[in-house]
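Final report, Chapter 2: Outcomes

The project's central promise was a pipeline that accepts a single protein chain and returns its three-dimensional structure in a standardized token representation, suitable for archiving and comparison. That pipeline is now operational. To close this chapter, we reproduce one record exactly as it appears in the project archive, with the input sequence first and the structure output second.
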Amino acid sequence: MYTTSKRATIRRTRRTVLSVLDRSNLVTLCYLADERVLSLRELNRALLARQLLLERRRLTVPAAVERLAGLQAQWPPAPYVGLWSRLAGFERRHLVRALERQQVVKATLMRATLHLLSARDYTLVAPILGEGWLAGLERKFPHEVGMVRSGHVERVAAGLYEPRRRSEVGELMGPWLREAVPGLSWHLWAAVQARGRIVHAAQSAAWQTSWTAAFVSAPPTEESADDGAAHLVRRYLSAFGPATRRDLASWSGLSGPQLRPGLEALEPELRTFRDERGRTLLDLRRAPLPAPDTHAPVRFLPKWDSTLLAYEPKERGRILPEGLRSTVIKKNGDVIQTFLVDGVVAGAWRVERARRLSTLLLEPFEPLPRGVLRELREEGEQLLRFVEPEAPAYDVR
């Protein structure tokens, strides 16, 4: 038996050995364990490929939204700009049509924030997300959580054929929702939406809207939510992998235990890697891993683009340099509009509107080569024409 002091000495020795391992030693150890080490640049190119940022693709809007594991939709124009940067020939009307046909829905989803998902994906993942929120509320608010789970929510929500405001839905649900205690109402309302399959009416996802949010029943599908946890994990890794379990939890807003059944069900489909710091990364077999020298064109990202939020806050370096994190992601959670150079955030952009001129202002975080600036101006002018199609004149500076 080791004494307490002996155990402490062993622990210190282990920490010392680990601290002096350089990358070559890590590669050797992972080789012996038959695990491939992925560089930061390899992870960057994997993310760009899966997020359709290496080349624009010709996909339908529902198919693209599924490939991307959803689109952030707090800022109404964001999904439109996000799809424009990723799809060949994309026009605003393509997303409008998908929303009107309820092929794509806007709802409160990952991290209890607004996203666009395909109707199929929504049916599969909304229940697991809603149950996660309820589990977090259950100990403190057992009565309200019990009401959400009682079946009453589903019965009321099934009749929301015409758009209704939140207050009107609350009236239908009963006093337990109207009188929810302060601080509970938002998360409870998010759980009610997930449990009842309540989504935003299509008008609330218009490019620019002052339309008061209203809600309808999600479209019926033939999908079963029984494998919702596995589907959520699969979508995440397909869109953002390779990544850690903690990254998955950060993106989804669910805890490790809540995600474990999905990970276990998906285990035969998974492979593992290591990053340069030795962390275990999960990925789907046969998911794309482009060469690190793959060319990455300049691309413009909208507010709250998911590529900047898909990992733990301090683990976003594959696309957002750590030194820029507080510049790009504000303390209030706001995420500014950015552009990528060589696949990495390199600056911000905004549009200024005047009566006769619409201007795209580029704000590089560091000086850029002339060739890159030329490419940015060319891509930026196309973005400006997409954002401001009625402007008499354009300028990029």
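Archive annotation: Residues 13-24, 26-32 have pLDDT under 50 and may be disordered.
This record, like all others produced under the grant, will remain available to the consortium after the project formally closes.
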